[in-house]
Amino acid sequence: MTSKELRQKYLEFFKAKGHTIIPSASLIPENDPTVLFTTAGMHPLAPYLMGEKHPGGRRLASAQKCIRTGDIDEVGNPTHHTFFEMLGNWSLGDYFKKEAIELSWEFLTSPAWLGLDKNRLAVSVFKGDSDAPFDQEAHDIWKNIIGVPEEKIARLPKKNNWWGPAGLTGPCGPDTEMFYWAGEADKIPASFNDDNPLWIEIWNDVFMQYNKTAAGTYEPLKQKNVDTGLGLERILAVINGYGDDYKTDLFKNIISRIERLSNKAYGTDQEITKAMRIIADHLKAATFIMGDDRGVAPSNLGQGYVVRRLIRRAIRYGRQLGIKEESWTKEIAKVVAHDYQEVYPELRRNINKVIEQLTEEEAKFKKTLELGLKEFEKLGVEGKISGNQAFNLYQTYGFPLEIIEELAKEKSLTVDAAAFAKELEKHQKLSRTASAGMFKGGLADASEATVKYHTAAHLLLAALRKVLGDQVIQKGSNITAERLRFDFAHPGKMSDEEKQKAEELVNGAIKQDLPVTGEELTLNQARTKGAHGIFDAKYGEKVTVYTIGDETLYFSKEICGGPHVEHTGILGHFKIQKEESSSAGVRRIKAILE
Ligand code: SER
Question: Residue 553 in contact with residue 570, Cβ under 8 Å?
Answer without folding.
Answer: no
